[in-house]
Specification:
This protein is of the alpha+beta class and 385 residues long. The protein folds into two domains: 167 residues, Uridine Diphospho-n-acetylenolpyruvylglucosamine Reductase, domain 3 (2-Layer Sandwich); 179 residues, FAD-linked oxidases, C-terminal domain (Vanillyl-alcohol Oxidase, Chain A, domain 3, 3-Layer(aba) Sandwich). It has 13 helices and 17 strands. A hairpin with a 4-residue loop joins strand 3 and strand 4.
Length: 385
Amino acid sequence: MTPGVSADVAALADRVRSAHANGAPLRVTGAGTWLDGGQPCVAADHLELAALTGIVAYEPGDLTLTVLAATPLSAIQALTASEGQWLTMDPHGSPDGTIGATVSTASSGPLASAYGTPRDHVLGCEFVTGTGDVVRGGGRVVKNVAGFDLVRLVTGAWGTLGAITEITVRLRAKPEQDVSLAVATLSGAVADVTNGVREWSHRSAFRPLAMELLSPSLARRLTGHSEELLLVRIGGNSTHARAAVDAVSSLGTARDIGHGVWSQLAQAEPKGALVFRVSALPSRIGSLFSTASALAEELGGYAHATVTRGIVRCVVPPPSEPQAVDYLCGQLSALSRDVTVAGERMSAPLWAAVRRMRSTDALSLRVRSTFDPGRILNPGILGDA
């Protein structure tokens, strides 16, 4: 056994080496809650990581935590809350999802506006390459910049460079006050309101932790409000929070809604729903949200926009008729000519309408060949099949 490698990881490495020798593709699997994410994976066999759960090292004084990759996000939040800390990754989906899946897919939620995406949180990791080698990148301290940044390389690679087995993350101190407001922004067209909110966020001395615009059906589902609604999350000491609430009130009628609404938003999408994101420069968020949310609502779904990042996330029921599939394919193709359209969970025809093939440029191919020359890890998931 390799020194410093656990028995479970050594067994995984042996399994990968055998698969590499036999040319047998593997689907990397943790808790199995996000297996419908990404483009269709062509591997029949699974590389199971579910046994890799638990805390390796927690240093509250350093605001760092090292965990095994299949540890649920809910377990991490429960542990760190006892120290007045939190992991500010808030991906959409169940809290039973794992830290490994969150990092592998680089999934983020509304808190990314203030704290950044997973690449801003991960300090170090251990992973098993497609040849069965166990590799470590980064470290367990915040200031660690030596060498090639393997951590950022594997974050968001969807397991195609290696199966992540251990992760070290940066934590944050929980704010003294954590206030969530629902703001009715109904004066004027949606595009005008959205652009006004974005401009306010730049002008204001108070930077929200999160700011999410909801389409009518989603607003109705989460709050009972019947039209577009803005959710704003504010954190800080009591003086700062009071001043920030007053500033937010300048946007429209604001009411305290409780921060449980963010969990409801994360888990709002029905099982089997199609999910795609539309993004452009934040300066275009007004017209972007107006167009994307209208499409989502027309199809019986909903949309929500991270205003400061220029991203609109659309959730729609799967089309049941061939003509409905064709219609959605046409709409996504039309959108992708002007803005970036990225899929999270979609059927094969829809992936063909938005595929960007970013994983098949020359540099990506060389990197992939270095870490997984046999292409046995999650083949097809990045559109490379």
